[in-house]
Amino acid sequence: MSEGSLIPDAARAMIGQEMESVSDTVEQGAIRRYAQAMGNTNPLYLDEEYARETPYGGIIAPPLFLGALAAYPPGYPEPSEDGIGGRTAAEQVALPLKRVIVGGQEWEFFEPVRPGDRILITSRLVELRETVGRESGPMIVNVKESTYTNQHGQVVAACRHTRLLR
Asked: What is residue 18's DSSP assignment?
């Protein structure tokens, strides 16, 4: 760790590196439960007969469903004691600040996600920097970019995730 820095050298060395990829198969029941939990009654997500008559030709997932799919995919470690979710090996570099705040997400959607799709999520750390909040004090800005690819090799979505650690 550079003198006076909150970011260990091992964490800085991870910038630009691809993290462990994870994948999951989209289930129609999961799409339905997500839409219902969000209060989204669009029949495109819930009614196969209706959805078959649309240009999509069948049920698709609501766009932000991928965020839920990415939260705890199969094989991902169980949530840690701090409650911020499991961590893959690439995310286990200790940072001195443990409180995590979602700083935002920027999504781009390219293809619909359908029941039965196998989605591969590939992520890389793109930025770690220190800053000081006016009232909160020292913080680390952690930015990760993720690509969501289906079993046909089509990129269905991309997301830039920003987290603030303090």
From this structure: B
Residues present in the chain in total: 166
Q: How far apart are CA 144 and CA 94, in angstroms?
A: 16
Q: What is the token pair recorded at 161?
A: 């995730």
CA distance 21 to 40: 29
Tokens of 120: 């591969």
What does the pLDDT read at residue 89?
Answer: 40
For the chain, 166 residues long, the average pLDDT of each consecutive 10-residue run is 75 86 91 95 96 97 88 55 46 66 93 96 91 86 94 97 88
Q: How many CB atoms lie within 10 A of CB 119?
A: 22
* Residue 115 CB neighbours (<10 A): 17
How many whole angstroms separate alpha carbon 164 and alpha carbon 129? 10
Token couple for 155: 């990129």
Identify whether the C-beta of residue 149 lies closer than 8 Å to the C-beta of residue 130: no
- How far does Cα 46 stand from its chain's mean position? 23
Does the model's pTM come out above 0.85? no
